[in-house]
Amino acid sequence: MDIVIRAAVIFILLWCVTRLAGRSTLGELSSFELILFITMGDLVAEGVIGQDYSATAAILAVGTMAVLTISVSWVNSRWRGPAQVTHGVPVVVAKDGELLHEVLRRERLGLDDLLAACRGQGIERTADIKLAVLEANGQLSFFTDEGSSSGSSEQPSVG
Q: Which phi and psi angles does 144 have, rounded to 5°?
């Protein structure tokens, strides 16, 4: 039973750490963040199963984390409130061509990252953005006026 309790505590700790790390998706992690997350896996294994290296301990630990993951997914699919806490909510980061710098700072989204996403969507100027939303999964969604140009420049201009 000790292993199940430790696995549950580590599950909650890992959830908190990943929420604090921000909305980056796996493809957007820096090299340091990727190494940190991989290393955490080895570190938490020691904390979960301690000196018990038996197959039973590993099965209990993995099983507990799997049940908790499935439980969180089930709760999120049924009620909106818990999903907002566990996954976050979309945030508007630009509106009517104006970047919301305070929101960008709060969400730890760099201007270079936003401009790179603009280029990826073929947006030349931030003034063409009607609405930019940082989704709960870390992706950026852009809504532009129909009259905006359709090519991407090397560096979108701010304003």
A: -120, 165
Look at strands 129-134 and 98-99 and give their pairing: unpaired
* Whether 129 contacts 118, CB under 8 Å: yes
Q: From 141, 19, 126, select the one nearest 92 (Cα to Cα).
A: 141
Q: Sheet of 129-134: strands edge to edge?
A: 98-99, 91-95, 129-134, 140-144
Contacts of residue 96, defined as CB under 8 A and 6 or more positions apart, other chains included, come to 129, 130, 131
pTM of the predicted structure, to 2 decimals: 0.58
Which residues are within 8 A (CB) of 52 and not within 5 positions of it... i.e. 6 or more apart? 3
pLDDT in tens, 19-66: 766 665 555 666 656 666 676 677 677 767 667 667 777 777 777 877
Residue 17: φ, ψ to 5°: -65, -45
What lies within 8 Å, CB to CB, of 117 at 6+ separation is 140, 142
Contact in structure between 7 and 60 (CB atoms under 8 Å): yes
Q: Hey, is 27 helix, strand or coil?
A: helix
